Amino acid sequence: MRWWTKTLLWTGILLACAGVGAFIASRSNPFPPGVAGGGTTSPGTSPSPGPDADRWTLVLRSDTSHTYRVGGACESNWRLRTSIRVQSSGGVSGAGIARLQRGAHCEFETAQEQARGIRVRILGRRVGSVLRLRFEDEGSQPVGSQDLGGFATFLPKLRVAVREQTGAQVARRREFTDANGDVFVMSSALRLAR
Questions:
Q1: Those residues with Cβ within 8 angstroms of residue 111's Cβ, 6 or more apart along the chain or in another chain
Q2: Distance (Å, whole) CA 98 – CA 126
Q3: CA geometry: angle at 88 spanning 82 and 89, to 5°?
Q4: Which DSSP letter does residue 34 get?
Q5: Which domain range does residue 111 map to?
Q6: Which pLDDT tens digit goes with each residue over 2-47?
Q7: Which of 31, 102, 150, 155 is deepest in the core (most CB within 10 A)?
Q8: DSSP strand E in 128-178: where?
Q9: How many domains are there within the chain?
Q10: 48 in a domain, yes or no?
Q11: Is 166 a member of any domain?
C-alpha cells in the first residue's frame, strides 16, 4: 500500500472516531442527577463559605531579624491581610500572601534576592471561643528568592490563640538559635476583624 493511501485511511479512521465520540457526548449528561452546574465557579470568583462557616479577616504584622553567627544581621517587616473561614465543625483554614514592607535590609552585601512576598497557609481549630492557629510557608515570590530576615523560618513555629471576636488581638515575641548558631527574633501582632 502506498504512503498516501495509508495517510488517507488513517485520517478517515480518526475522523470517524471523533464523530462517534462527539455524537455520544451530545446524547449524554456529564453531571449525575443532583449535581447542579457541576460545582464549577466562574473565573475570578471563589466559592462562598456556605451557611455553616464564619469568615474573619486576619491581619498579621511581623518584624523579624536574623543575626548570623559569623557576624552581621538582616531585618525584614511583613504584613498579611487575608480571610480565614471557621467551619461549624471547628476547622479553620485560609491562605494569603504576606508582603514585605519598606525598610528590609542587611548590614552586609549579599547576592541573594530578598523575597517580596511569601504565600502563607493558615490552619487551625476553634476550641470554645478561641481560634488556635498555625501557619505554613508555601513559597516565596519571586521564585528562588529568600527571606533574609527570618520571617519564613518562623512561620512553621508560630502558634497563636486568639479570641473569636471582632477586634481581638494577640502579640508574640519569640527568639531562638538554630543549629548553626544564628539567632532569629520575631515580634508579631495578630488582629481579627469582620
A1: none
A2: 23
A3: 105
A4: T
A5: 53-193
A6: 888 888 888 888 888 777 777 676 665 554 444 444 444 444 444 4
A7: 150
A8: 130-141, 159-163, 169-177
A9: 1
A10: no
A11: yes
